[in-house]
Amino acid sequence: MYIPHTHINNSNQKMHMPLYWLLMIWMVLLLNGCTTSIDDYQNAKPKFDLFKFFEGKTQAWGIVQDYKGQQIRRFNVELNGVITDNQLVLTEDFVFDDNQKQQRIWTITKQADGHYLGTADDVIGEAVGYEKGNALNWQYVLAMDVNGSTYHINFDDWMFYQNDNQLFNIAKMKKWGFTVGTVTLFFQKS
């Protein structure tokens, strides 16, 4: 919808700038209110168990897309998860399409109320995850190296459990509230 900066040509009445900005703020709030909540998956089956799925060996492959949806990278991941009490140590070994290798080691702790806290060397602070039904939503900030500069990127990371052997993952990457990219993965138990 296009709204001119100075007026709306409806019955030749001019719109005052404060009214224009009020409409713009209302539209932004309306669009932000259209987000998915983890509670939307409360009754979705089969029920996801993060620790059970990632215990042992798992393989994954995925793509990174820029803000326009253009694929900019492809990668494969070998994962190994070890559980001790209420903690999962998940080692991810990435190999990108340009043969770059990267390793991330997550330490994920299940809290008494059922949510998760996760840490890794390139995660700023802690990742917070909530699991309901067949879904898990992680929120975290990742320090990403782009051409020698480090950027702190917010991740809205969703995992969707398909069955005992398959899991889909889609993560929106945001900076200053704008989506700058998307990561899509498919996990397969070994």
Notes on the protein architecture:
The protein is mainly β and 190 residues long. The protein has two helices and ten strands; from the N terminus they run ααββββββββββ. It has a ten-stranded antiparallel barrel. The protein is globular.
The biggest sheet, with number of strands, parallel, antiparallel or mixed sense and barrel status, is: 10 strands, antiparallel, barrel
**For the CA atoms, what is the radius of gyration?**
20 Å
Could you list the spans in which at least 5 consecutive residues all have pLDDT below 50? 1-15, 28-33
What order do the helices and strands follow? HHEEEEEEEEEE
Query: Please, how many helices?
Result: 2
Terminal CA distance reads: 49 Å
| Percent helix range | 10-25%
Mean pLDDT: 86
Q: Count of DSSP E strands? A: 10
* Global morphology: globular
* Proportion of residues in β-strands: over 45%
Instruction: Kindly report the spatial arrangement of strands forming the biggest sheet.
Output: 1-2-3-4-5-6-7-8-9-10
Helix and strand content put the structural class at mainly beta
Concise structural overview:
With 190 residues, this protein is mainly β.
How are the secondary structure elements laid out?
Layout: H1 17-32, H2 50-54, E1 56-66, E2 71-84, E3 87-96, E4 101-110, E5 116-119, E6 123-132, E7 135-146, E8 149-163, E9 166-175, E10 178-189
Antiparallel strand pairs: 1-2, 1-10, 2-3, 3-4, 4-5, 5-6, 6-7, 7-8, 8-9, 9-10
Keywords:
globular; ten-stranded antiparallel beta barrel; mainly beta; 2 helices; disordered N terminus; 190 residues
